[in-house]
């Protein structure tokens, strides 16, 4: 494949062929896809992309897949101007990149999985698997069903019921591991060494992670081919944050945008914030933590890409901020009440962090700010119990309607 040169170790720079491998044999650093940007510069254009499918596959020239095989509808989600939320926060040019309506499983994971499983099919695997905090399992199960792959998803046993059903409906084998995500991930790394399965976020990880770049590509195109001034995104493993940054850099490298790149701000739940804590303490290494937060989809205590995500905020001029569980609920409600978007706990975290950053004055009022909403609220409904208005119950009579409802109208 001409556009992909191979894989390269992020630490020592050693090069490898584009195979289903993910760590450097010499230094155990993570491997990353390397492209021939000179070639890509000569083959891509805004016009060609605009004529492409209304999915993330319009950017196939910048993805490590020859021919999409599965997940043909993922991506190209709405970028909405957030007038109401912007007014509350004092931001005139606030936009929401709304992956809560991504297809087919309502989170940004459909991007990474469509790329990972297209690659897995290209490699000839017959079984897909993943270690997941919930959304990844949903997406791997759905895409495996589409592709006719056997599927095993591994999750922490304490996940939200909605997320468990959101996998089970596609009939994969769901393995609930008695432990947190970091335990699940460690187990899966051991299994991946034993079996010839496509673990999308282990041996296929270099390809999987590239799917997140499309969140930068789409935002730039939807803004009329320019980068915003700032973006705010949540972090679990930290991969998404690093790939949003890589995506904007690539667009500039191949000549699709010019000018300044955005400042990248990272959001974590206070109960699981190893990257944000490193930032606040000025460390360039991560101290693993034990997750304790309602934001389960981003509860990774030992984030694989943590140090690279830290480096992105440093390089781009951004920062890290955290939100408590209470602030996360408030964030979910604020987005719903102002913009009519129902997001899950990861989105609540991101909105809460956006609010704190805006209140601290890190954005100028006229800056173009994009907030990434990465998941759907129908998957984490149980966290809202006790936090919403009560339903008003009435008899089916006009009198009762008057007594119980109209008397309250001011
Ligand atoms: C997985 C996930 C993230 C973060 O992903 P990383 O790339 O691991 O940092 C953010 N939001 C949601 C809803 C997710 O499911
Ligand atoms: Zn290496």
TrEMBL record:
<feature type="binding site">
    <location>
        <position position="135"/>
    </location>
    <ligand>
        <name>pyridoxal 5'-phosphate</name>
    </ligand>
</feature>
<dbReference type="Pfam" id="PF00291">
    <property type="entry name" value="PALP"/>
</dbReference>
<feature type="domain" description="Tryptophan synthase beta chain-like PALP">
    <location>
        <begin position="73"/>
        <end position="375"/>
    </location>
</feature>
<dbReference type="GO" id="GO:0009097">
    <property type="term" value="P:isoleucine biosynthetic process"/>
</dbReference>
<keyword id="KW-0028">Amino-acid biosynthesis</keyword>
<dbReference type="InterPro" id="IPR026260">
    <property type="entry name" value="Thr_Synthase_bac/arc"/>
</dbReference>
<dbReference type="Pfam" id="PF05810">
    <property type="entry name" value="NinF"/>
</dbReference>
<keyword id="KW-0456">Lyase</keyword>
<keyword id="KW-0791">Threonine biosynthesis</keyword>
<protein>
    <recommendedName>
        <fullName>Threonine synthase</fullName>
        <ecNumber>4.2.3.1</ecNumber>
    </recommendedName>
</protein>
<dbReference type="GO" id="GO:0004795">
    <property type="term" value="F:threonine synthase activity"/>
</dbReference>
<dbReference type="GO" id="GO:0004794">
    <property type="term" value="F:threonine deaminase activity"/>
</dbReference>
<comment type="pathway">
    <text>Amino-acid biosynthesis; L-threonine biosynthesis; L-threonine from L-aspartate: step 5/5.</text>
</comment>
<dbReference type="InterPro" id="IPR050147">
    <property type="entry name" value="Ser/Thr_Dehydratase"/>
</dbReference>
<comment type="function">
    <text>Catalyzes the gamma-elimination of phosphate from L-phosphohomoserine and the beta-addition of water to produce L-threonine.</text>
</comment>
<dbReference type="InterPro" id="IPR008712">
    <property type="entry name" value="NinF"/>
</dbReference>
<feature type="modified residue" description="N6-(pyridoxal phosphate)lysine">
    <location>
        <position position="109"/>
    </location>
</feature>
<dbReference type="InterPro" id="IPR004450">
    <property type="entry name" value="Thr_synthase-like"/>
</dbReference>
<dbReference type="GO" id="GO:0003941">
    <property type="term" value="F:L-serine ammonia-lyase activity"/>
</dbReference>
<dbReference type="InterPro" id="IPR036052">
    <property type="entry name" value="TrpB-like_PALP_sf"/>
</dbReference>
<dbReference type="GO" id="GO:0009088">
    <property type="term" value="P:threonine biosynthetic process"/>
</dbReference>
<dbReference type="GO" id="GO:0006567">
    <property type="term" value="P:L-threonine catabolic process"/>
</dbReference>
<keyword id="KW-0663">Pyridoxal phosphate</keyword>
<dbReference type="GO" id="GO:0006565">
    <property type="term" value="P:L-serine catabolic process"/>
</dbReference>
<comment type="similarity">
    <text>Belongs to the threonine synthase family.</text>
</comment>
<dbReference type="InterPro" id="IPR001926">
    <property type="entry name" value="TrpB-like_PALP"/>
</dbReference>
